[in-house]
Structure formats: structure tokens, C-alpha cells
Amino acid sequence: MKKEEYFMRLAIEEAKKAADQEEVPIGAIAVYRDQVIGRGYNLRERTNDATSHAEMQAIRGANKFLNNWRLRDVDLYVTLEPCSMCAGAIVLSRIRCVYYGASDPKAGAAGSLMNLLQDDRLNHVCEVVSGVLKEENQKLLKDFFKDLRKKRKINSRKHLR
Amino acid sequence: MKKEEYFMRLAIEEAKKAADQEEVPIGAIAVYRDQVIGRGYNLRERTNDATSHAEMQAIRGANKFLNNWRLRDVDLYVTLEPCSMCAGAIVLSRIRCVYYGASDPKAGAAGSLMNLLQDDRLNHVCEVVSGVLKEENQKLLKDFFKDLRKKRKINSRKHLR
């Protein structure tokens, strides 16, 4: 298995932890010298914290592990294209390379709506590799929302009785 | 005193707490129905956390206070124009209005480099009021960096002895 697929599978494992808690399944992993030093998954609903995205937790974990806010030789693997908040945090922490799975045409800030990771007016420019295990990552989100719609339908039927 | 100046002065008080800890003085306050429900100041160096910006702490405080990730009737007062991470977090949390003091021509994402707070492709658009106590906020940062350069000069002299 290619290294980037190996680490993306670990990010997918994180995303599944979110789905298990009925959160939108997005997961992230921070890697330093082939070692996982930060991980996270979306927990917005459960924590009621708008900033509780997978990437933010993985970055904070890596900051803590290295005892440094600069993550110069750290790579980030994330199942969905980062939003502008997370892309901003990635640039601020000087992450080397971002590997992401599915694109986010509605809010993606790493190539879709904008590309904050490679805006040379900012004080750091990342490498970006998109579409890592793309189909698998797209399916993960698609299945989650399909399931959610099904559950909502059942709940609204219950309500009618 | 105008209401926006009153709350901006509270944000300046937060910024001064950062300066007292030798952090770049940036402060923020979250206000809901004229009540301060979140506050924060820049603590990047002390916490070694790249995401430890004033606005992020104020938003998380407000999320906690309201037990809700949606901050629909919440206003944010911040001494410096938000960066792209913080602007992203502001949009994600649906903050109503952002009042900021000094502009940031190097990294400002609320009008200077870009305007993420008013990008109608995203799922929320904020009101923005810039230049609140502008001179005072500019001076706060200018004095801090002047002082820092002075200290560094003394330290490098010490080093030469």
C-alpha cells in the first residue's frame, strides 16, 4: 500500500468515530517522521463548539506533542478538503503538506472555493495532494447523509402517529 | 461613550493581558444582549498552540456559555482584523457582526487581503464594522513591537559581552 493511502486510512478510521456519534464523518491525522502525532474527528454537535473540526484537533495534538506551534515537517491527512478556518490554521502552523480525500465544492478552501493553502501573500505555502482515496471518502459522506435522511423520515413518521 | 467603543475597550483590556505575557497584544470579546459571554487574548507562544488566537477563545467561550455552536445574535469585538482561520471560525459560528480595530495588511481576512466574512458563497455572511478605536489599537501593536526590538537589542548586546 502506498504511504499516503496508509495514513489516509487512519484518517478514515477517525472519521468513522465521528459517524458512530452521529457527527458528519470527517477525520484527520498529523504525521511527523512517519509517526502519528495528532488525530481528530468532527465533534461539532456533541461539543457545541463551532471550531471542533477534525483538522483543528489534529493540529493541536501535534502542537502539544512537539511542544511547538510550528509544525514544519508535519503532514496532515484529512478525509475532506479543509474549510477556510482549518486552511487558515494549517498555514498558521506551517504544515508541510496536506493530503485530502474528497473535495468540498460548497466550502473547500484548498482549491474548490479558494486556495488558502497556496496563497503566496500569506507567510507560508503548503504542498497539497488532493483526491487520496477519493471515491472511498466521498462514499463515507454520501452514506452518512443517506442514512441521516432515512432516520429523519422514520422519526417524522413516528411523529405523525 | 458609544457602545462599540465601550466593548472595544474591553477587548483592548484582553490584548493588554497578552502583552503582559510577552505575547503579541490582540484581544477579543464576544457579546450577547449587551453581556460579555466570551473573551480571549493571543497566547500562541505560551501555549505553543498555533490556533490559540484571541477570537478562537472568545468564540469557544461563547459556544460554551450558550451551549450552542450557533452564535446567531452574538457580536465579536477584536482589536486587530481577523486572520483567515479566525474569519473562518466566525463564519462557521454564524456570528452576527464583527467590530475590529486596526487593519492587518499582511494577513487580514476581513477586507485587507480578502473578505471571508462577506463571501456570499459561504453559508453565512457577517456584518463588519472596521476601524473602531483604530489609532489606539494601532498604537498598542506598534508600541509592543518597538519595545520588543529594544529588548532584543539589549539581549544581543548582553550576548556580545
UniProtKB/TrEMBL annotation, chains A, B:
<dbReference type="InterPro" id="IPR058535">
    <property type="entry name" value="MafB19-deam"/>
</dbReference>
<dbReference type="Pfam" id="PF14437">
    <property type="entry name" value="MafB19-deam"/>
</dbReference>
<keyword id="KW-0862">Zinc</keyword>
<dbReference type="InterPro" id="IPR002125">
    <property type="entry name" value="CMP_dCMP_dom"/>
</dbReference>
<feature type="domain" description="CMP/dCMP-type deaminase">
    <location>
        <begin position="2"/>
        <end position="113"/>
    </location>
</feature>
<comment type="function">
    <text>Catalyzes the deamination of adenosine to inosine at the wobble position 34 of tRNA(Arg2).</text>
</comment>
<comment type="similarity">
    <text>Belongs to the cytidine and deoxycytidylate deaminase family. ADAT2 subfamily.</text>
</comment>
<keyword id="KW-0479">Metal-binding</keyword>
<dbReference type="GO" id="GO:0052717">
    <property type="term" value="F:tRNA-specific adenosine-34 deaminase activity"/>
</dbReference>
<keyword id="KW-0819">tRNA processing</keyword>
<dbReference type="InterPro" id="IPR016192">
    <property type="entry name" value="APOBEC/CMP_deaminase_Zn-bd"/>
</dbReference>
<feature type="binding site">
    <location>
        <position position="83"/>
    </location>
    <ligand>
        <name>Zn(2+)</name>
    </ligand>
</feature>
<feature type="binding site">
    <location>
        <position position="86"/>
    </location>
    <ligand>
        <name>Zn(2+)</name>
    </ligand>
</feature>
<comment type="subunit">
    <text>Homodimer.</text>
</comment>
<dbReference type="InterPro" id="IPR016193">
    <property type="entry name" value="Cytidine_deaminase-like"/>
</dbReference>
<protein>
    <recommendedName>
        <fullName>tRNA-specific adenosine deaminase</fullName>
        <ecNumber>3.5.4.33</ecNumber>
    </recommendedName>
</protein>
<feature type="binding site">
    <location>
        <position position="53"/>
    </location>
    <ligand>
        <name>Zn(2+)</name>
    </ligand>
</feature>
<dbReference type="GO" id="GO:0002100">
    <property type="term" value="P:tRNA wobble adenosine to inosine editing"/>
</dbReference>
<keyword id="KW-0378">Hydrolase</keyword>
<dbReference type="GO" id="GO:0008270">
    <property type="term" value="F:zinc ion binding"/>
</dbReference>
<dbReference type="InterPro" id="IPR028883">
    <property type="entry name" value="tRNA_aden_deaminase"/>
</dbReference>
<feature type="active site" description="Proton donor">
    <location>
        <position position="55"/>
    </location>
</feature>
